[in-house]
Design a protein that fits this description.
By secondary structure, the protein is of the alpha/beta class. The chain has one domain: Rossmann fold (3-Layer(aba) Sandwich). 37% of the residues lie in helices and 32% in strands. The protein has six helices and ten strands; from the N terminus they run βαβββαβββαβαβαβα. Strand 2 and strand 3 form a beta hairpin. The longest helix has 26 residues. It binds S-adenosyl-L-homocysteine. S-adenosyl-L-homocysteine binds next to strand 5, strand 9, strand 10 and helix 6. S-adenosyl-L-homocysteine (SAH) binds next to strand 5, strand 9, strand 10 and helix 6. It comes from Paenibacillus macerans.
Length: 234
């Protein structure tokens, strides 16, 4: 089992509750990203806020692996719904992560496929998926969870037509966000197991400007609760 677990979020709201609970904190700032080392439920962890988007997430993931010897990375955060059954507050556990904005289709590659690369849809670790499912079974009372494909791109998606035709219809995604596939690719290339947990903050349908800030706090808290339970039961 991994010695140190890297716990990552993209925004302050997503890691705030973790930082309240990590003991014996030591802080380091590298490339403008703050990493907080410490222990959570007796396990060695490093918490970081990557910032929004794929480049930030990739950088933070590689630093967690290289500088903090993270043997696993777990992401906690919020996402837009892609699967039609999902409502605000529901949970998605990544089965895999893929970039929806990687598009070399004029060259004959299906959307999401990185040219000349063996894997483009990076599978999450089955043990971590099971651990997350057990946590959801314990904690998801008035909301549901699904295990499914997390789609990532450097765009805030607010177009239900694009979601249903491309992200759900073509790419069979469960939710859409801006970091998961980047850290998944870094983890895949480094042979480091990962899982991404996302709670739904919006329906990716254009109403996000109205409800995003309001629901982000609740959704980030739900995702944190699952992750916290996973650390406890590891
Ligand atoms: N807090 C910022 C917005 C951050 S961008 C603001 O209010 O100005 C959105 C963040 O939430 C990203 O980290 C992304 O991973 C996630 N996210 C939630 N819903 C999303 C959606 N519909 N499309 C893309 N990313 C989404």
């Amino acid at each position: 089992m991994a010695k140190t677990i890297g716990l990552m979020g993209a925004m302050d709201e997503e890691i705030a509750l973790l930082l309240e609970r990590v003991e014996n904190q030591e802080t380091a700032v590298i490339a403008g990203i703050r990493f907080v080392k410490g222990s959570l439920h007796g396990k060695d962890v490093v918490v970081c806020k990557s910032g929004v988007g794929k480049v930030n997430a990739a950088l933070a993931a590689q630093l967690l692996i290289d500088r903090f010897e993270a043997g696993a990375i777990w992401f906690t955060g919020v996402a837009g719904a892609v699967h039609p059954d999902l409502d605000v507050g529901d949970i998605v556990i990544s089965s895999s992560c893929q970039q929806h904005d990687m598009d070399a289709s004029p060259l004959g590659y299906p959307r999401g496929t990185v040219p000349y690369q063996e894997v483009s849809d990076f599978p999450a670790d089955p043990v971590f998926i099971a651990l997350a499912e057990e946590a959801c079974t314990r904690l998801c009372r008035d909301h549901k969870y699904i295990v499914g494909r997390v789609l990532s791109g450097d765009q805030f998606i607010a177009d239900r037509g694009f979601v249903s035709s491309v992200l759900y219809g073509e790419m069979e995604g469960a939710c859409v966000e801006m970091e998961g596939a980047a850290l998944a690719q870094v983890c895949g290339m480094n042979r480091v197991p990962f899982v991404v947990l996302r709670s739904i903050s919006d329906k990716a349908d254009g109403s996000a400007d109205v409800n995003f800030a309001e629901f982000t706090k609740l959704a980030a808290q739900r995702s944190f609760e699952i992750l916290n339970d996973m650390v406890q039961h590891l």
